Amino acid sequence: MPKTLFVNQTVEILNRAFHDTSPSNASYNSQVTQETSVGASAFALQFGASFTSLTEDELSTRILGNMGVLPNAGLQTAVKEYLVSVGKVNVGIVALQLGEILSGLEQATGDMAVYKAAAVAWNAELDASYLYSANPANTVPSPAGPLGDFGLTLPLTAGDDAISSAQTSNWGDTILAPVSGMLSSADAIDGGLGIDTLKATLAAGAAVAPTLKSVEKVLITAGSGAEFSAAGATGLADLRVDAAAGPATFSGVGLATTVGIQNSGAGGALTVKFAGAGGPSDSANLVFADAAGDDEIIVAGVETLVVQSAPGTVAATTVNHVRITAAQAEKIVIGGWQALVTTVTGAKVSAIDASGMMLMAALDLTLAGTQGVSIALNTQAAHKVTLGAGADTVSIAGLAGMAAQNMDLSTAATLAASAIEVAGFVSGTDAIKLTSANPVAKTAPGSSELASIAASSSLLAAATLAATTAGANKAIAFRYGADTYILVNDGAAALGENDSLVKLTGVTALADASWTSV
Fold first, then answer.
1. For 437-492, how does the pLDDT look when each residue is reduced to its tens digit (9 = 90+)?
2. 3-class secondary structure for 167-227?
């Protein structure tokens, strides 16, 4: 199954890549705390440091083998040679990069299509790994090798069902209620050990509140107006609407439960009522997978939302379309492997951190009803942000380096499509802060040089001239057409694919104080 859970992908990838095991709950929580404190790159360096006694060949074989992409002599040799080039001290970062790249190949085409099956298996492994490590009952690491799913399929009936742990396999069971009325508030289910899943269909207007114990995943196919209460659930890690037919409600949901929308095309609104929310610093996790119908998720009473955009089970879906309405949210963290188009509505939102979007997963973000937001982006895709009212600050990190998405210099059109676009930017009110892989200072071209750039025959010609005007390791702002662009040049003076381009749509003049580059 595709990777769809909210997870700390850094911790999971490194444990599976190096050890082929999943850590105990206590160890996992400790590692997550450390990774959050020092950042993914520093944590990966520390994690890989204990493996540098191995040769490059041994490291390449170990990591790729644990990811399930061997035998592949060409790939194994390429990774070995890459480790020789960058040094074994960076093996943790290399493993993390490989794991992230593989996770994004479920829908690969062309030459990369050979990795689709491995990507599906790898993502399923990471998914199961998270559920194992997130379970407090798992006090020791998992055995080496795949986290198998050998469970039973247990159907519910139209009557009152009681399933005890003695009736389960303790290997990850599936409880099915495919017909409306089979799942009721009178049902009591104890999934026992393993990662268990309840799949249920609710009729329009139905409301159920079953008693669930050790059932880690619940998928609800909801009719319009249906409500599922998780108030009687303990150990629930993941709760989703699956192919909703209209608006639905989840109530009594614990803040530790990830809530999401998947396989939806009806454009319904999911209202989530978290139990215990209302404190000054509540946090909740949301996930979207194959949510292609311009769905909406409505969350109240939570100050921080952590959003994951993930692939689902429909290969044709490559972009999630979900609106986020959060009246009390102050900070929203966005990451994941799947492109996301979203509108965030919330008068209290002051910070959005989208630096966790993975390679080639583009974010199209629109702010609505906000009054001044700080936004963080990475350069791994051509993101688009539409700002709202108030004084917004956009911070973009990782520019002009190997980690940034390559610019396509084939034509002016492909270059334009490679740019990170910021719409609604007001010079003198909003601010943009650029951080590069290597220090890059602003350059101050003369009026005649800017005029020459503006008079170029195409955006490609303008960027080419801007690069040579600025020089190596410089950033230059210039106008072309009705927009202002900022080109961040790498260590070569000429325009190259490792440079970065930011477009400020509709900005005809950019105040020097409105942008910085370091």
1. 889 999 999 999 999 999 999 999 999 999 999 999 999 999 999 999 999 999 99
2. HCCCCCCEEEECCCCCCCCCCEEECCCCCCEEEEEECCCCEECCEEECCCEEEEEECCCEE
